[in-house]
Design goal:
It is a single chain. Helix content is 48%, strand content 7%. By secondary structure, the protein is mainly alpha-helical. The strands form 2 sheets. It has a 3-stranded antiparallel sheet. Strands 4-5-6 form a 3-stranded antiparallel sheet. A hairpin with a 6-residue loop joins strand 2 and strand 3. The relative contact order is 0.13. The protein binds carboxymethyl coenzyme *A.
Length: 441
């Protein structure tokens, strides 16, 4: 399904490691991608040397070869299949971006029409899934419901789970992209005790999502085109981000040949954490807790205190050591939405801008290269749109689904793919003999 756009090349360059205990030298090839840092190919390291690498958090490890998304964290660049995120956010729409991520190229008009049609006609859920929601408490976090319901799709769609069959993979991928807004909107409707709203095929993807979130049977719901466009742009910005925690989780789960729907459920679980997708919810909670501009210095001081676990949510990124390009677009979108809703004087926006300025000017944040990330402004937009706090990360999951399935497909098609199985630096007890209970003190 994925077209491999770029092949890596083995240059003549190599890197030699010297074991200074024995004086032995080991040479490893260097591989170049199309852009970005070269990598040292250590696949034979253990076999040739008896050493493993040690890299907790994978800060220096390339786990796979990929032709989908490229990030230059120093420059603040993000490319989907080579296209800058700014150009896609301005000129494209989410369906086109989904096609691009899945197939490697922008669609022509007929390909786009067909793709949108096919996604649209997969948005309904098996009717029995409807009953599945009743098993959850009404006050469940919607991300818990997402993990459960998406995982449960593996029990419903048996005709698309032969992962060696490209057509099965394609159907499973379309199903996940198409059904995610329905599952998400129903998680919300369930929480507030409103009837589930079924998808409407004449609506565009983002319009349909808003419709399923906010319509009810008692009165007509008019879709605001500015909000639909803003949501579409947010989906584009979150669609993929190379080998982040949730994508790596999907790849790792999928590497064993697991059911595709179950792999995406694993990705949702990983996304939920506040260091990853859960940050958009955490940002808004933090802004509400700060409450007043005058308290900004107090919170900045806390963020700088190494003995205080508090962090400024929405700041910092593992890869971006420059302004996150998505945050800039998000900031602009935030103004557009607030203007449309006549809410430009939203106190949280003023607070966010004040906090951003203080952090950008503060030596600690400057030195550590901590800039606002994509999640810093998204919460304010969602709140203005009437989306409740607990749904913020769910929206991220809806958007990221296409990235997960594109990366999952790429992995399955990779002829060098193996089950993911990292090793460890063992620091536990060495071998010891079992003591009978009576001998233990
Ligand atoms: N506030 C205060 N200090 C911070 C922050 C922050 N938000 N982020 C990093 N630091 C400090 C951290 O304490 C560390 O200091 P030191 O070197 O003295 O120990 C240094 O900066 C480097 O941080 P790190 O934790 O080693 O960096 P990381 O690459 O492991 O973590 C991060 C990246 C995004 C998890 C982290 O910056 C963070 O926790 N940010 C807040 C949560 C957040 O906004 N997450 C959303 C990320 S973007 C969307 C997504 O990917 O899902």
């Amino acid at each position: 399904m994925n077209k491999k756009v770029v092949e890596s090349s083995s240059s003549n360059r190599s890197v030699t490691l010297v074991d200074n205990a024995t004086g032995r030298e080991f040479t490893f090839p260097v591989i170049s991608g199309s852009v970005g840092p070269d990598v040292i190919d250590v696949r034979n390291l253990y076999q040739d040397t008896g050493f493993f690498t040690f890299d907790p958090g994978y800060t220096s490890t390339g786990s796979c070869e990929s032709g989908i998304t490229f990030i230059d964290g120093d420059e603040g660049t993000l490319l989907y299949r080579g296209y800058p995120i700014q150009e896609l956010a301005e000129h494209s729409d989410f369906m086109e971006v989904c096609y691009l991520l899945l197939y490697g190229d922008l669609p022509n008009a007929e390909q786009k029409r067909k793709f949108e049609h096919d996604i649209t006609y997969h948005t309904m859920l098996h009717e029995q899934i409807h009953k599945f929601y009743d098993g959850f408490r009404r006050d469940s976090h919607p991300m818990a419901v997402m993990v459960g319901v998406v995982g449960a799709l593996s029990a419903f769609y048996h005709d698309s789970t032969d992962i060696t069959n490209p057509r099965h993979r394609m159907i499973a991928s379309y199903r996940m992209i198409a059904k995610m807004p329905t599952i998400a909107a129903w998680a919300y409707k369930y929480a507030i005790g409103q009837p589930f709203v079924y998808p409407r095929n004449e609506l565009k993807y983002s319009e349909n999502f808003l419709h399923m979130l906010f319509a009810n049977p008692c009165e007509p719901y008019t879709i605001n085109p500015v909000l639909a466009r803003a949501l579409d742009r947010i989906l584009i910005l979150h669609a993929d981000h190379e080998q982040n925690a949730s994508t790596s989780t999907v790849r790792l789960a999928g590497s064993s040949g697991a059911n595709p729907f179950a792999c995406i459920a694993a990705g949702i679980a990983s996304l939920w954490g506040p260091a990853h997708g859960g940050a958009n919810e955490a940002v808004l909670r933090m802004l509400e807790e700060i409450g007043d501009k005058n308290r900004i210095p107090e919170y900045v001081k806390r963020a700088k205190n190494p003995d205080d676990p508090f962090r400024l949510m929405g700041f910092g990124h593992r890869v971006y050591k420059n302004y996150d390009p998505r945050a800039k677009i998000m900031r602009q979108t935030c103004y557009e939405v607030l203007d449309e809703l006549g809410a430009r004087d939203e106190p949280l926006l003023e607070l966010a801008m004040g906090l951003e300025q203080v952090a950008l000017d503060d030596e600690f944040f400057v030195k550590k290269k901590l800039y606002p990330n994509v999640d810093f402004y998204s919460g304010i937009i969602f709140k203005a749109m009437g989306i409740p706090l607990s749904m913020f990360t769910v929206l991220f999951a809806v958007a990221r689904t296409v990235g997960w399935v594109a990366q999952w497909n790429e992995m399955i098609e990779d002829p060098t793919q193996k089950i993911g199985r990292p090793r460890q630096l063992y620091t536990g007890a060495t071998r010891r003999d079992y003591k009978l209970l009576a001998q233990r003190t």
